[in-house]
Amino acid sequence: MRPLRTAVAGVVLGMLGLAACGQSDGSATSASPAASNPAASNSAASGGAFPVTVQAGNGAVTIAKRPEHIVSLSPTATEILFAIGAGAQVGAVDDQSNYPPEAPKTSLSGFKPNVEAIAAAKPDLIVLANDLEGVVAGLGKVGVPVLLEPAATKLEDTYDQIRDLGAATGNVDKAEEVAGGVKQKIDALVAAAPKGKGLTYYHELDTTPYAATSSTFIGQVYSLFGLKNIADEAPDAAGGYPKLSAEFVAKADPDLIFLGDTKCCGQNAAALAKRPGWSGLAALKRDRVVELDDDVASRWGPRVADLAQVVSDAVQKAAG
Fold it and tell me: What are the UniProt keywords, alphabetically (predicted)?
């Protein structure tokens, strides 16, 4: 289980504001599909040619040969690596990487990274989402390629990072298939969604309660379905993650409530009804409280398509 959302508000929420960077085979940095960029497509499509250069958050990273003992300190990167067929190349993952179940979870931490402990895992490629405590510079002295793949700020970043890791691991074709599949599913869900309903929503990150505005990655997912975010009207957006008062939410009375704190904090419709002034909320009265999987709601990997499916189902039900 990851740290409680109050810790997330101070650390992870800040990390979610970081920009994700693009993938390259040494010449291209576009987030567009490799099919539209022959140079990017051909470099590793035929079995994953090496050396390969990836444009990551820490600059251009050259990987001399196909990695066989990857250490992932990012739950999202772990999900991507397994989704693109690189699972057998992963030797160790951090203590928050709980999906897929077969990921080789260890006590390594992405929140409090220890260079010596990471190096002791004998990696030939290290992937992380955050440069905390100067870990990237520290790992640079170890002589192992390090890919910094920060939190996505838009859906294109998700597709881009999938391709990044495909190039870095020699799984270009599968990565392209996964990225294309996620985009295709989301596009289809959005196209089929009811239009012009003007539904409002509240997405809860933790019981503080912290929320996410439309400017955030997850907020943009909701916006695809035409939903209006009550957090956008908060007096202090706090970089996209404002701390709301119970009174603010009660007054806004959203049509839909999405809970991203079900696993960490045991939240559900019954728990919300016990909060002062919330029992009369329209979302509770009309059975429009959606309990999300915390992990799916806070990561930006392939399962963002699953999140989009849940949002789509909720919109369809509310509009029906």
Answer: Signal
Question: Residue 127, SS3?
Answer: strand
What pairs with residue 299 in β-bridges?
none
Answer whether 278's CB lies under 8 Å from 250's CB. yes
Q: DSSP character for 12?
A: H
Return the amino acid letter for 210.
Answer: Y
Domain positions in the chain: 24-187, 193-319
Phi-psi region of 192 (alpha: psi -120 to 50; beta: other; left: phi over 0): alpha
Among residues 59, 80, 7, the alpha carbon closest in space to that of 300 is found at 80
Q: CATH 3.40.50.1980: does it fit domain 24-187?
A: yes
Q: What is the pLDDT of residues 243-266, one digit of tens each?
A: 999 999 999 999 999 999 999 999
Partner residues linked to 258 by β-bridges: 203, 290
For tokens 């799984």, what's the residue? 171
Provide the β-strand partners of residue 291. Answer: 259
User: Who's near 156: CB < 8 A, 6+ residues apart?
Assistant: 31
User: From its phi and psi, is residue 47 left (phi > 0), alpha (psi between -120 and 50) or beta?
Assistant: left
| Helix ranges, the chain (H) | 5-10, 12-16, 38-45, 75-83, 115-120, 135-140, 155-169, 172-192, 217-223, 246-252, 262-265, 269-273, 282-285, 294-298, 304-319
Residue 209 Cα distances to 103, 174, 202, angstroms: 32, 39, 11
Classified by CATH at the fold level, domain 193-319 comes out as Rossmann fold (3.40.50)
